[in-house]
Design a protein that fits this description.
alpha/beta; about 200 residues; seven-stranded mixed beta sheet; globular; binds S-adenosylmethionine; Rossmann fold; about 20% helix
Length: about 200
C-alpha cells in the first residue's frame, strides 16, 4: 500500500507536502532548514522542541551547545511522548518547532504563553495572510522577525527517498521578548548544500 498521500485540498492546490498515514501531520524537518535558524538566531538557555517527532529538529538545534528538551503528543521514538503542547503547564526559556499544520494557530498562542525568551515556529510563508490571523495573532503579537527561505524546503515522511523540489514557501517566525516590532529578513542561499 502506498503509505503516502498528497495534502492537496482545494484551498491549497499547490501543496506538495506528503503525510504518513500512521500519525497526524508528521513531517521531519530537513536538517538544513533548522541549521539556518540556529546560524542566525542566538538562543540563551535551554530550547524545548515541543512537537519533536523523530528528533530531526532537536538534533540540529543542539549544534550550538544549547540543552534541548524534546517532547511530542505521540510516541515517535524520540523525546518524551504524551505531552500535549496545547494543554500543558510546562514552559521553557526558548521554544522551537515545526508544528502540525492543522494546529499552527494554537501553537502560536501556546508558545507566546510558555516561552520566556524566544519562540520560533517553522510555518508556511502564507501564514502571514488571513483576516482572522490579522485580527488575532498579528494585531496583538506580531513576530519580531520573519526569516524567509530563498531555497525551497521539501518535506517527506521519515525514511522516504528525498527527491524533487517543494512548491510551498516556508519561513521561520520568531517571537523575541526583547525585540518589539517586526523585521523581515532573508536567509542567504547555500544552507541546503552546507547542511544536508
Ligand atoms: C510537522 S511534524 C514536525 C516534527 C518535528 N518538529 C520536526 O520538525 O522534525 C509535527 C509533530 O507535531 C506532533 N504533534 C501534533 N499535535 C501535537 C500537540 N498537540 N502537542 C505536541 N505535539 C504534537 C506530531 O506528532 C508531529 O510529530
Amino acid at each position: 500500500m502506498d503509505a503516502t498521500y498528497h495534502l492537496s485540498g482545494g484551498f491549497k492546490p499547490t501543496m506538495k507536502r506528503f503525510a504518513d498515514l500512521d500519525g497526524p501531520d508528521f513531517f521531519p524537518t530537513p536538517r538544513w532548514a533548522t541549521c539556518a535558524l540556529a546560524d542566525n538566531e542566538k538562543f540563551v538557555g535551554e530550547i524545548w522542541e515541543c512537537a519533536c517527532g523523530n528528533g530531526a529538529m532537536s538534533r540540529a538545534l543542539a549544534m550550538n551547545g544549547n540543552r534541548v528538551e524534546s517532547s511530542d503528543l505521540y510516541q515517535r521514538g524520540f523525546g518524551e511522548p504524551g505531552v500535549d503542547f496545547l494543554d500543558t503547564e510546562r514552559r521553557a526559556s526558548n521554544i522551537v518547532t515545526n508544528p502540525p499544520y492543522n494546529s499552527a494557530e494554537g501553537f502560536v498562542v501556546a508558545g507566546l504563553e510558555k516561552a520566556d525568551r524566544k519562540f520560533a515556529l517553522l510555518l508556511r510563508l502564507a501564514f502571514l495572510e488571513g483576516t482572522n490571523r490579522a485580527n488575532t495573532i498579528f494585531a496583538r503579537n506580531p513576530p519580531s522577525r520573519v526569516w524567509v527561505f530563498s531555497e525551497r524546503i521539501t518535506f517527506y515522511p521519515a525514511g522516504a527517498e528525498a527527491k524533487g523540489s517543494g512548491t510551498t514557501a516556508y519561513a521561520w517566525f520568531v517571537w523575541d521578548k526583547d525585540s518589539p516590532g517586526t523585521e523581515l529578513r532573508w536567509f542567504k542561499p547555500g544552507y541546503k548544500a552546507r547542511y544536508s
